[in-house]
Amino acid sequence: MRPTPTEIMTVTASRLLDDDAVVFAGVGIPLLASALARRRQAPNLTIVLEGGIVGTHLVPGRLPISTNEMRAAFGAPMLTDITDIFLFAQRGFFDFGILGAAQVDMYGNINTSYIGTPDAPKVRLPGSGGANDIISLCNEIFIVTAHEPRRFVEQVDFITSPGHLRGANTRAESGLVFGNVSTVVTDLAVLDFDPESRRMRLRAVQHGVPVDQVREATGFELLMHEPLDELPPVDPAELTILRDLNGAAVGAA
Amino acid sequence: MRPTPTEIMTVTASRLLDDDAVVFAGVGIPLLASALARRRQAPNLTIVLEGGIVGTHLVPGRLPISTNEMRAAFGAPMLTDITDIFLFAQRGFFDFGILGAAQVDMYGNINTSYIGTPDAPKVRLPGSGGANDIISLCNEIFIVTAHEPRRFVEQVDFITSPGHLRGANTRAESGLVFGNVSTVVTDLAVLDFDPESRRMRLRAVQHGVPVDQVREATGFELLMHEPLDELPPVDPAELTILRDLNGAAVGAA
Amino acid sequence: MTATTFREARADLERHARPVRDKTCTAAEALRLVEDGHHVGIGGTLYSRTPMALVFELLRQPHRGLTLSRPLTCYEAELLLVTGAADRIVTSWMGIGLNWGLSQVLRHYVERGLAVYEEWSHLGIGLRYKAGAMGVPYLPTLTMLGSDLARMDGTRTVECPYTGQRLLAVPALHPDVALIHVHRADVYGNAQVDGYRHMDVDMARAARRVVVSAEEIVDPDVIRASPFSTMLPHFAVDAVVEAPYGCYPHECYGRYEADTEHFDTYVQAIRDHGLDGVRQYIGEHVLGHPDFAGFLGDVGAARLDRQQRRAKELMYE
Amino acid sequence: MTATTFREARADLERHARPVRDKTCTAAEALRLVEDGHHVGIGGTLYSRTPMALVFELLRQPHRGLTLSRPLTCYEAELLLVTGAADRIVTSWMGIGLNWGLSQVLRHYVERGLAVYEEWSHLGIGLRYKAGAMGVPYLPTLTMLGSDLARMDGTRTVECPYTGQRLLAVPALHPDVALIHVHRADVYGNAQVDGYRHMDVDMARAARRVVVSAEEIVDPDVIRASPFSTMLPHFAVDAVVEAPYGCYPHECYGRYEADTEHFDTYVQAIRDHGLDGVRQYIGEHVLGHPDFAGFLGDVGAARLDRQQRRAKELMYE
Hints:
- The complex is a heterotetramer, with 2 copies of chain A and 2 copies of chain C.
- By secondary structure, chain A is α/β, with parallel strands linked by helices.
- Chain A has a single domain (5-246), classed as Glutaconate Coenzyme A-transferase, CATH 3.40.1080.10.
- Helices cover 23% and strands 24% of the residues of chain A.
- A 10-stranded mixed sheet of chain A has the order 4-3-2-1-5-10-12-13-14-15, sandwiched between helices. Chain A has a 3-stranded mixed sheet with strand order 7-6-11, with no helix packed on it. In chain A, strands 8-9 form a two-stranded antiparallel sheet.
- The relative contact order of chain A is 0.17.
- The longest helix of chain C is centred in the last third of the chain and has 14 residues, at 260-273.
- Chain C has a domain at 6-137 and 172-244: Glutaconate Coenzyme A-transferase.
- Chains in contact: A-C, A-D, B-C, B-D, C-D.
- The interface between A and C is medium-sized, with 25 and 29 residues.
């Protein structure tokens, strides 16, 4: 029972979620990671979804594909509307935000809008959805994405969702005075940001992954945290829960 | 069955309300006038109350004393909250607003805050409630009040609810680009405002009331509309309905 | 205007956890959240869904320098003025209700400069709570413009960067503690009401701390069966107090009507004895009992049943 | 950005009566409110409570130059792009859903400059509708700041007059026509939903004209028995269209789940035939029938029953 790369990063992300907290999760890996955390170290974690759902319980094998469908609401003690749930975020109610990224740069900026330029796009991606809002408004933000050079670029083509913008204090100077984009979780590593320059740096490698492999999968010069940790492997119990949750509904996620 | 002064102005106000319109009514005389209109010329008038009530049906003899209590909600097809109902007003959904006044001046400004000055009040009145909002946000506004010199003053001690402010275009210049304070209804007369100066002027006297009596009851120089009308008397049918509505609940209103 | 800025209010919230844990306690325990000098938001409006059980408990405590805010303020604020707990009222209207005339207590304190009545329009105060709840420092509006309310409150105007329209900027209000009464809540604080929400949702979400009193504490599954009725989620609530008839003599939508005869008696006492009438009221109905249940016991089951019956008659079914 | 300013939108509303009168009509009659060049707001989000019966009717009409807006946009916009009715999409996300990959139709039109995708953040578009619904020309927010979305959309920033905080000013959006599907409505247009409200309330209140389709037309007394479920009042509604299964193949909360196999077939047709796959879909499912009931007849009762059963299983009771 070997974990897939997707499973490795889902499990790693789930471990970041403390009990008693509130997490604003995007659909897919972020939601799976949150649901897994509830079955492990964080039984009282409250999962919030952008459809207006507070505290979804989820049905294994019938996980929602979108955060706005009936499945997402199962067992929730409160349902409100989309705008309202983001206003909760703007007020500061949500400890964590977790989201994916088509492209992320060395300052944690995310692009899910254009490959190429807005004037001459090579690929028109689906767009922000709630990602810009989650990264702008939640208290602490985790990004989860596969570690590939085409995803980890020096500068994103387009800042859909602002990380540390151009580093140093530029995020706060833009008016984004709240929200710390703290961590990037991948199938190869966990990364954080240098407290001064806000450039991405390698914090820990996944179990058995050499540092050079992380460097090669990264399209920019990666800073190194001292010391550098190695993460424990995925626990079989974590994997069992994850696959049970996933069921047939989301496939390989 | 002679009508009281209060009944005369309630009936007169009710006649201003067109069928198929939406009226935002304060409690007391404004609500009674609206309820009466629904039983006469405006069966499809929608009465909105500041508690968040859309389309209250009211129970004769059990009229509400406040616009936020259960009685006010009876038979309403929609209930929302206070702030929300005023936001409907701000958007422009409400054709008419009707409200009372402790003190009104020659520009239709209303004072329900202080007799005397804020620094040294002789009487601290209850305050605006929703009056400032109704007069600022509804499309056309009617003021209903007893005609007495102490109420009809040249300049109110304090502008709780803005009429035409200091006349001419000063209301619009303050930012209040919507809402026309069009009519003042009293037990002696109906008054409107000169289109240029926005000073109050006598439009019509109540049945049998001499113009001089209106002048004497007004604490400022009243402009005269040409021609000056005399209103028809209260119809016995109007009075019967009004007293049925009123029941024992609001007493002499 | 407001002591707590939106940034301070957010920083406070970020440090403060309100997890999915049992939060039930007595009113006395819950009210420890209130400190001298606090701004206390009182839920409901006028005599509808006032958290009276919590207010009565507040009256038993020796607080000073409280500011109270409410959409429309009824006699609960008179009681807190007379005990000396509160000296500032932020509201849009204060009295008992249309039928009971001017508030003589308000007149006494404000006309003598013993207390401050900071007056906003009804929507003005609603938008102050809403700005606070939305996590922004102000909201633009067309109301209050041109009036002396705007001048007295020290408000500023802003210009729309797209249209040039002049608008009033209403500043966010973040009560230190909000007191809210609901029809039912689970032990975690997920709270539902069956009637008007008044300004409770915004007030509670803007506040730093929130105490909920509830007609009933219910199983979480009851809440989950109708999640659209949930007004406040557990993470916006600090304490849950069981308080049947917790609004009496005020009304609780669908449960019991306001007992206007109780108001009559109170107002008559003021007519007869001035502020001493209020002090007698507090002595008899509040301090004369160890808790709100004691007060209700005095009122008696027959009278509570009558108010309940009157409420049922007004349900449209 | 927005064609109709808040002052124009208000002036329009002041001139426009939507009384307590029977507003029921067919989808074709209701859709006469839409004119070439209009901004059409489509209620629901992604594949939840999409007013599909109304969208299908819109596809039968020979419109040009429409702008569509929605919180999250699904394949209904693809259909309207391919017929040439729409050439501008204002939304925060566009695709079928996470499992169906990128929208190849969107890519085709936008990458070739044949249509414009004006992208806002999810909250950004929500606050645009909300500003419109509130009757103010903008709302201040902390979201979108610093991003290229804010730059591309030509937004401006404002400074809070009390705190100096820099905020993004999100401009009001007033759709010319909003299309909204609900669970039940009376003939006057008082409309209730049983599930997520998405951004429908704000979208409809911001819009100049509103068409409501409903699973059921009910007696006004049904509405009056649960007035807190009423999402839109009659004075915010122009036309009421009876449309059972009116969201199919999308979901209607508590009534029927989304038919994802229908999406699979649609996406496979695009993989196999490109835009011709979309044209075939429209020919077969939309133009091949005189109305939406014809399409549902093709789908068949067995499949609709299955979707209904799946929805019931997800009700927490």
